[in-house]
């Protein structure tokens, strides 16, 4: 009995067929050919890969975030903190430009005085929300030592603390010395009249310091630097505050010492 094999038809699309053979059996005695079917192979259905998740559908299924609504008061406070941040950065760049000498003394002093006035106003407005400006600087990760010294340290322009003139005529020098003497006398009289309020003494000390640094070629006289120190002290106090009795006596002594040193220097020059 001879056998023949033939392949089975291809499986339907989408299925992976397993090849199996059908056996043909020839029986000479019976004069017939019978077909012996092999067991049907298992058809493994092709499984489509899962459809990837779509970003849009995932976003749609996620809970939507609600926009933070600020009140009018909160918006004002946020704007004030932003202004404080910008003032710190601006002051740091201004001080750096002054140190490098890329701007004139007049331009520096004009811009510095404006920034100081803005900072004082803003500091008063944020006194309750931000009592410590240095803590705010650390929280924001800022590194602005020059701005800290100018805004929170001296409180006045560098040109108001140090003399910056070296050449002038004799007439201008005499006028500068006269203005300084006038400032010493005015401040001394105010202290003798028991003026102790900061808003009364600060303008007098500021004018005196401005006249002192206006004197060209002024050597470091005894007590002269104390006037600049008092300017920094008064500038850091509130206008409504008053000097104590001990502070007034110390200020009066410093004024007399500096005035005496200035007069002795002028006498030595003549």
From TrEMBL:
Residues 172-267 form the VPS28 C-terminal domain. InterPro entries: ESCRT_assembly_dom, Vps28, VPS28_C, VPS28_C_sf, VPS28_N, VPS28_N_sf. The keyword Protein transport applies. Belongs to the VPS28 family. It holds the Pfam family VPS28. It comes from the Eukaryota. It comes from Alexandrium catenella. This is Vacuolar protein sorting-associated protein 28 homolog.
